[in-house]
Amino acid sequence: MTDAIDARARAVRTSGLVRIVGAGLLGSSIGHALRALGVDVVLADASPAQLRLAVDYGAGRAARDDDRPDLVVVAVPPDVTADVIERELGAHPDAVVTDVASVKLEPLLALRERGVDLSRYIGSHPMAGRERGGAISARADIFFGRPWVICRDEETSARDLAVVEGLALDLGASLVEMTPEEHDRSVALISHVPQLVASLLAGRFVGAEDASLRLAGQGVRDTTRIAASAPELWVQILGANAQPVVDVLDALAADLTTVAGALRDPDAPGSRRAVADTIRRGNEGVERLPGKHGQNRRFETVVVMVDDTPGQLGRLFGDLGDLDVNVEDFRLEHSPGAQFGLGEISVVPSAVSVATDGLAARGWKIASLND
Questions:
Q1: Which residue in 184, 195, 194 sits closest to 244, CA to CA?
Q2: Residue 278 and residue 272: Cα distance in Å, rounded?
Q3: Whole-structure pTM value
Q4: Closest CA to 123 of 293, 41, 244, 240
Q5: Which phi and psi angles does 294 have, rounded to 5°?
Q6: How do residues 316-338 score in pLDDT, each as one tens digit?
Q7: Which residues face 74 on adjacent strands?
């Protein structure tokens, strides 16, 4: 395993020093991951407090004026991304510069309008993050197995491309090549609009009665999880990718109007079909999402009651291992007011009977089986 990590790290290690501008969640996480591979990392941030915190947590050392980086990673908010890229290209004429901003077209157009030489710049974006930001939330493993979009153009040299691709591979990500336009349309659909939908739904809870909220289960928690994200950052992201987001929102608004119209008179001809078609189309969409290892593969779910006491999850996984059942995915839903949770275990269809019968024989209570 160490040899494999060393092989992945070689592209960055041979480039020498890596400079990360922006010591927030993504920048610090990149720093932690590279340092774990033995890479020399220097950090810079407009906030001295944020920089000191990232250094204290071990994401890298503070940058010095005499640093000569071979790779610069710009990890700053979208509204200053173009400014920082331009500055770093000028300050480090021998370095390849990439950024990890969640919007790719607007910074690129701004730099082109200024006449900046972009031959050493390659835009990129790791599809990774957390609801909470800042250096204190950084983790070295958040990129592992996640897509990392690379936006190169005809000016990109093979050598420079290898450096940025090497960074993504070093951190365990999988490479995806897109144009900036393709990237921004894609993230509008799978990231930016879901953020807005989660926030809008969670916003309805503000004036809700406490009795209603006590009924909340894992479904609504899953749907609104990302609503805890930072408003300041999302104002910038959505503003920078406004048109692709509006396109998706307009289509979504039309769908909502259709289903709301059907529910206003559920017994009218075609109303029930409109509702059923809405749910069915959602089923089809979910099935298209890549699952484990990027596969579009259907699993079945065995639901087990798990007492809220120490060691129960360890015993559950141990019993599944003894049964030779591979856990494809797992989610624990806590029951409000009860001292137990519901463990939702995703398994391949052929393992369902083995899991249910074997766990029941070991004293586990099977709550239900979802096909």
A1: 184
A2: 10
A3: 0.77
A4: 240
A5: 75, 10
A6: 999 999 999 999 888 887 756 66
A7: 21, 99
